[in-house]
Each structure stands twice: as structure tokens, then as C-alpha cells.
Amino acid sequence: MIYFDNAATSFPKPPMVARAMAGTLNKIGGNPGRAGHSLSLCGGRVIQRCREVLAEAFGAKAPEQVIFTSGCTEALNLAIRGMLHQGDQVLCSHGEHNAVMRPLKELEAAGQITVRVLKPNSLGLVTPEAIEEAVTPKTALCVLCHASNVTGVVQPVAKLSGTLKKFGIPLLVDAAQTAGVLPVSLGELGADMIALPGHKGLLGPHGTGVLVLGEGMLPRPLIMGGTGSMSERMRQPEALPDRYESGTPNLPGIAGLLAGARFALHHRAEIEAYEQELSARLRYGLERMRGIRVLGHPGAEKLGVVSFVPAFMDPGELADQLAAAGFALRSGLHCAPSIHQWLGTLHSGACRASVGIYNTEEEVDRLLEAVDRALGQR
Ligand code: PMP
User: Fold this and answer.
1) Chain centroid to CA 111: how far?
2) How many other CB atoms are there within 10 angstroms of residue 200's CB atom?
């Protein structure tokens, strides 16, 4: 099977990821931060090292401002649910994943907040003017998806954060598709919080994610429980990261994330260039085929995600045919109905090919041939 579903999770992972995970299970074993014996201390050191590496990469002031979660979804939920109060208004883009839209819409349905989706320009980009027009005295948060997991279009977050700062509105960036691939940090983006998965561009294992907290950002915790610290107190500790990390940590996952992130961050610029090259080749090849619409407007900056809709075939059927021919792609709405609505593809969905570091030009060409063949059989 040739894997073109890296926007869902990157695969395969560099070999040291599995080695690091097996090492913690086979050799360390103890529960980090819970005891003074060497097996617990050793696990704690692995977690601390990962926090330090990610804090440096994503611009957190201190390692404690890197909060481990089960994925980008949990990181987004923690930031959204933990920051908002009754009566708040929230701004977001049309490109948000359901990991953002569903918590927002749930709070809206409960009468707690109002949600305003910012109108994009013809390239699919949010503009400073759209923000200026939407802001009210009640605006308490703006959530922006750094790059769409459907079109790959990258939002000009650094520019938009300047406008938000003028109004004193905190910015939460969903960097699910960009962390480990594009330059992403609190400083570069002008963000107050960044939610990211460990298992996509950072090349870590499933079930890992991070919320990076900027200065002064102290959302209410989603989950409370044992932290191995201040156990005499019945109330949740205030100190970071314990305020947010209750229960036994995902040591094998975090060890794998440390190994994957070290690799990805070291090679980030090469990875960015390589994935741009592969996806441009794919996009160009698809655009030249008749009877196919490639999503995402020409002229907008994009990353390695290419979605397309065949004119005379259901995208799901095309993905099934490609799977039978040995290619792993994803069809449907990619958990992002709002952007499909904007693109006019809510009913059909699309077929998505997303490239990763282990894909090759030859594999892209073989995929193009297989798409052409599948369309030609119609
Ligand atoms: N946001 C975006 C833009 C995504 O693409 C995804 C993953 N599909 C998520 C959030 C959720 O990430 P996770 O699967 O790590 O919870």
C-alpha cells in the first residue's frame, strides 16, 4: 500500500520512534512523577526532555508551558472550553476542523457564547478587514486553523494576529497540519496558544498532542485528578504543568514524540521544501486531467494536502478504486464541513491525497496514473 494519508497521521514514522517507545515499555516501566525510585525518575526525565525540546521549538517561555494531551483535539478543547465565559463572542475561520467547531457550537447551543465565522476573500484567506468588521466588545477569543486539512491553504496568521492584538483579543492557532512542517511558534505567529498533534508533522505516535501556552494564558483545566504533587490538597494544583496533566502520563507516547520531534524539527526546512515539491507535482498533474476539480485557489500558499473532486464519479468510489489499486487516500468531508460548504462540496465531499516525508516523486506519478485510469474507466 502506498500511503497518501499523512494529513490524518504521518506514516511510516522514523525508526527511532518505535525504538524509543519500546525502550520505555521494556526498560523504564515506572510511573513518572509518582515515586522516588529510579524507574519513576527516569520516566520523568524523558517527559521533561520532551517538554524542553517542544518549548524551545514552539517559543514557550518555560518548559512547563508545554502541556501534553491525547492529541490536537484535546488541546483545542482545553483552550476553548477553559478560556471562555458566559456572554463571550468567539471569532473563527471557515476552515476550522470539527475539533474547534463542535466545542464552539456546543457552547453556543447551551447559550453560553456566540460564534462568528470570519468571511474569507476569494483565495480562501481571512483578512484583517474581516476581523475588524466582526470584533465586538464581547470578543474574547479568535481561533484560526493555520492551514486547512482540506485545501492545504495557509492562513496569514502572523498578519492577522497583529490586528487581533490591536483589540487585545487572544489568538488560539490550530497548527494540526503545520507543526513540524512550517515555521510555527508563539512569537512568529503572534499567537497566545498553539494546539498541535504529536502524530502528524512531528512524526510521533498516535495519542499524542500538545497545547503550548503563551504568557498569561491559564485556561481552566478540563480534567482533574492525581498529579503526584501536593497530594495533601483536595484541590487541583495551580502550578504548571500539573494543573492540566492529571493521571498517569502517556510515557511511551511522549518518548516516541520526543524521538519523532527531534528528527522532524532538525529537518523541518528540508521537509517543508520536499513536501511542497511533491504536492505541487501532484496538484499540477491533477489539474491537467479532464473531469477533475482540484480544491484550493491558485495563488494561495499551500502545503502538502491536495483534495480533488471528480466530475462524473463519487469521490468515495474513486478512493475505493484507488485503495484497490494500492493507494491509501481519504475521501469524505475530512471532519471540516464548514470549508466544504464554502467550496460547494458539502454533498460530494472530496478525495484527499496528503504527502509525507517518505513519499517519492515516482509514487506521486503512479498515483496520477491510477487516478487517470480510474477516471478513464467511466
Ligand atoms: N485540526 C485539524 C486542522 C486537523 O486536521 C486535525 C486532524 N485531522 C485535528 C485538528 C485533530 O487532531 P487530532 O487527531 O490529533 O486530535
Assistant:
1) 28
2) 29
Half-sphere exposure of 106 (CA within 13 A, CB side): 10
Residues with CB under 6 A from ligand 1: 8, 71-73, 97, 99, 145, 149, 174, 176-177, 197, 209, 335
Q: Average the pLDDT over 67-85 and give the result.
A: 98
pLDDT in tens, 88-115: 999 999 999 999 999 999 999 999 999 9
Which domains are present in the chain? 15-266 (3.40.640.10), 268-376 (3.90.1150.10)
> Ligand 1, closest atom to CA 8?
8
Beta bridge partners of residue 92, listed in sequence order = 117, 143
Is the pLDDT at 377 greater than 70? The verdict is no
Say how far apart CA 233 and CA 231 lie, in whole Å: 5
Mutation test of ligand 1: which of 98, 149, 334 has the most ligand atoms closer than 8 Å to its C-beta?
A: 149
Pocket test for ligand 1, best of 5, 6, 68, 72 (most atoms within 8 A of CB): 72
